[in-house]
Amino acid sequence: MGRIPHRPTPRPTPRRIVLTLLAASAVVPLAAGPAHADPAPTAPRLPYPTAPHPTAPDPTAPLAPGPTAPVVHPLATTAAAQRATHDFWTPERMRSATPMDALTSNKKISPAQVAKGVPAVIQYSQPNGGSAWTGGGAVTKTAGRVFFTYQGRTASCSGDAITSSNKSVVVTAGHCVKLNGAWHTNWTFVPGYNNGNAPYGTWTAAKTLSTPQWTASEDINYDVGAAVVAPLNGQRLTDVVGGQGIAFNQARGQVMYAFGYPAASPYDGTKLIYCSGSVIDDFLTSNDQGIGCNQTGGASGGPWFLNFSESTGTGVQNSVNSFKYNFLPNYMFGPYFGTDAQNLYNTAQSS
């Protein structure tokens, strides 16, 4: 990630990572590697199919109350468009994509605190500030890199395949689907990405979605996005790579694991990186949660898990990599998964 110029304001404003652009702001969003990584915050972004996690919401349940419905953006809706997007992302383009690691503008913050969830007890694990994941398991198939075109440039973020009724949902950061008022194009997901290789295929998004607050004003508290990917070779995404669980309105302050494909130095976007430890509430400008983590641009949109098992690589997703403050390089922040994130998930899985 790049450095954000200091602004003499009483309180720093969080900013999201963008391709390679930097704006004067205190918070930097995460982005991906060789391609222009995620265009928001400055900091960052499986294996066997798994059954739906018991804590996942009932897909038939009505949407919880919210300011407005999640916004759906059509992308490659025809077979021809899907082939064109798939063919666009050659291994060379993936390797050359640039991580979105700069902020472009101050983002609005909602003063209201999101609702807290039911308390839960999680087994403690040794904190880790950022190293290559060598444990194997499901996460090596469900987590992957996201590639798209942003302002005419190839860029990248991270994402994760989630259990869903349509077996086609990828959860990522809001700025990994839309930034500065424009939706990204040529959007694809590469689960298990490895240095330009796509061991489980390149999945083209038929549509992308974001929370209403992110769509309207790019509120960093609601930096959550999703994509519904088209079938590949007659198969649906989670039938091929499995799907992690997902949960909403959970208690804060738990132990979590954060994964992503950071591409800015000292990382290069070729490996899946993880951090782990107890999360804290952001005490500065947002209602997000923070975790000790040195992931960099390109990691944006990577999953945060509760109840993560190092032996099986499975967990319950409960946030995504969103942004970093330039004066706190060893902490990364992610949005709280409340009602609006749940509405987004329900809309995506029913699309």
Tell me the major beta sheet: 6 strands, antiparallel, barrel
With strands numbered from the N-terminus, the spatial order across the biggest sheet is 6-7-8-13-12-11
Q: Using only CA atoms, what is the Rg?
A: 17 Å
The number of helical elements comes to 6
Percent helix among the residues?
10-25%
Relative strand content: 25-35%
From the structure above, extract its key features.
alpha+beta, six-stranded antiparallel β-barrel, 29% strand, globular
Summed up:
The protein has 351 residues and is an alpha+beta fold.
Strand-helix topology:
Elements lengths: L26 E3 L6 E2 L33 E4 L4 H10 L2 H6 L1 E2 L28 E5 L6 H4 E8 L2 E10 L6 E4 L5 E2 L2 E2 L1 E7 L11 E8 L1 H6 L7 E5 L7 H5 L3 E2 L8 E6 L12 E6 L1 E2 L7 E4 L10 E7 L4 E7 L2 E3 L5 E4 L4 H11 L2
